[in-house]
Amino acid sequence: MEYFIVILFSYLLGTSSMSYYLAKINHVDIRNKGSKNLGASNAMILMGWKAGILVAVHDAGKALLAVILAGILFPEATYVKEAAGVAAVFGHIFPFYLKFKGGKGLASFIGMALALDLKFGLAVLVLLAVVTLMTDYIVLGTVSVILTFPALIAFISGNLHGAGIVLLASALIGWKHRENYVRIAKGTEIRFRKANRGDYRVK
Length: 203
What we know:
The chain is mainly alpha-helical. 73% of the residues lie in helices and 0% in strands.
């Protein structure tokens, strides 16, 4: 029963969408422009870096909160924190009130990572920045994060079952970015530096 409560609550918490709220306020059709999703990167692309930061903090915060609350409410339940984090990521990607079309989950994944293991979470956050700046593609930084964090959990912490649960979120995020991989191959993927300069911003 505790897992059911945690997963349901965390999923609902994860469905909160700051990018959707900001897009409504700014009259931006965020689901049909840019990378066409409700994530922080698309908010930055279409509404500027301030909007991108606000969305990223919100999306990371809801997953971080889900993990922390799960640990406080059910401290004896093994892997309940991992379950909460993954459920929040799923809620972000599949919000029921938006026809299950949300963001792609990176910021929420990082929030989950920070709550599960602060050192590893900070490490993958740095990795995200380095890979993104080196390659000029946010998606490549994303792939590095979703692969590295569960590997750290499994091989350094020795938490194989926890890593397996986290991999569910990694697999979903990787799958949600499949169109980005195709665009990279075609040379049409949005570049991070151009997006940061506002080249794609809705006027």
